[in-house]
Amino acid sequence: MERRHHTVPISYLLGFCDPKHQLRAFDRQTQRQSTVSVKDASVVTDFYQMPGEADPAMVERDTLGDIEGVASPIFSQIRKGELAINSEASGVLARFIAMQLVRTTQTRYWAEDLADWYGKVWFEGMTRETVALRFREKGIEPLESQVDAVMEFVENPQRFRFVPPQGSSLLLMLTTFLGILPHIDRGWNWIVAHSSGRPFLTSDHPVVMVGDSVNDGVGVASADEIWLPVGRHYAVVMSRDHSLPPVFLNVRSDHVRRICQRIAWEAQRWVYWHPRDDALRDIDVPRREKNLVVETMGWRDRPDGTVGEIVRLGQPRPKIPGECLLSGRPVTDQKAVFDGLRAHRDSKSSSP
Fold first, then answer.
1. What does the DSSP assignment read for 198-249?
2. Are the CB atoms for 197 and 253 separated by under 8 Å?
3. Contact 25, 34 (CB under 8 A)
4. Closest CA to 129 of 119, 121, 137
5. Which residues of 59-84 are buried (b: 16+ CB within 10 A; e: fewer)?
6. How many Å apart are CA 238 and CA 247, to the nearest integer?
7. Rounded CA gap, 218 and 241, in Å?
């Protein structure tokens, strides 16, 4: 059974390869560069593993292969400068982009971090009495040793980690794909952006969003633009601005650099580019920070007299100085306003 699974398809990465099908790669974890074969790029062992005896190869070969297969000829045409995106091509690319947004190791780590956080919140503040009560609610009369074991976790949560069931990240990937596809499949102006100067790079998380952020976050429903570089000098851009032309020639090098910086900063681990290019020039790629950020936004009173904590879960999204849209409009950073909440305080609350 094949255990080497690609999180970014080979047919896509070919747009950044040399004639020997090699890529230049930067590893955020080790901070080192290397040359890799396109067949070995973005490979994760057992990434599509499913419960039981199900063959994970069917996910990459069939479900994902169907999406890649129809998108690949479009990528080839764009790289040759032969195609402005028509309605048929946009439907194909929408499915590819929606899947590639979630077909990443970020989805796996997000699922794992959420499971760990929610599991620990569920046990937060429990006493021996409440632990015993939960056992009894399940029809189990607990032994002292069983209560001791749970209390060891309650009192020392940093020593433990909740692990989601096998296949959870795959389920999250597929359900999220179905959820975001309608937001990507309609309402956009599809543009081919060409750079005659500075080349594009890509990564193990190649789809990035640009637009006004709220609490440093931008999603598919709020993004003004979604970018997918498809080759050294071409990118597919989804824009809310329908006044822009279908082909945007000679994108300025400083704009390309900002897009490349966004891609590099949002890469989970690997950044890729053509071996002849100096793609990381003027681009900083620090080690990846933690995936899940939990921020307390405020507190609310519950009907039962307890206090609930309002939290925001997210992923770090660094700000790009001078970031703007293709039209030239600068993007802004805004903060959400939550009415009726008390300000953050240091005391602990019960679980949300």
1. SPP-EESS--EEES-EETTB--TTT-SEEEEEEETTEEEEEES-TTS-SEE-
2. yes
3. yes
4. 137
5. bbeeebeebbebbbebbbbbbeeebe
6. 12
7. 17
Q: Are 298 and 181 in contact (CB under 8 A)?
A: no
pLDDT at position 349, please?
36
50 and 170 in contact (C-beta within 8 Å)?
yes
Q: Tell me which amino acid residue 218 is.
A: V
Instruction: Give yes or no for a contact between 24 and 35, defined as CB atoms under 8 angstroms apart.
Output: yes
pLDDT category of residue 345 using cuts at 50, 70 and 90 = very low
Burial of 287 (0-12, 13-18, 19+ CB in 10 A): exposed
Distance of CA 348 to the CA centre of its chain: 31
**39 confidence band (pLDDT: 50, 70, 90):** very high
Work out the percent of the chain whose per-residue pLDDT is above 90. 57
Of the two residues 154 and 110, the one the predictor is more confident about is 154
| 337 phi and psi angles, rounded to 5 deg | -110, 120
Q: Closest Cα partner for 229 from 218, 219, 237? A: 237
What is d(CA 351, CA 202) in angstroms, rounded to the nearest whole number? 40
Separation CA 56–CA 328 (nearest Å) = 44
pTM of the model: 0.84
Nearest to 330, CA basis, from 250, 212, 197 = 212
Give SS3 for 71: helix
Quick check: 286 and 28 in contact, CB under 8 A? yes
pLDDT of residue 46: 81
- Rg value, the chain, Cα: 23
* Per-residue pLDDT at 344 exceeds 60: no
pLDDT of 262-289, one tens digit each?
999 999 999 999 999 999 999 999 998 7
3-state secondary structure of 196: coil
Q: Looking up tokens 């499949």, which residue turns up?
A: 185
Task: Work out the widest C-alpha separation in the chain, in whole angstroms.
Answer: 73
- Cβ atoms of 94 and 226 within 8 Å: the answer is no
For the record, the structure tokens of 133 come out as 């009560």
In the Cβ-directed half-sphere of 111, how many Cα atoms lie within 13 Å?
A: 21
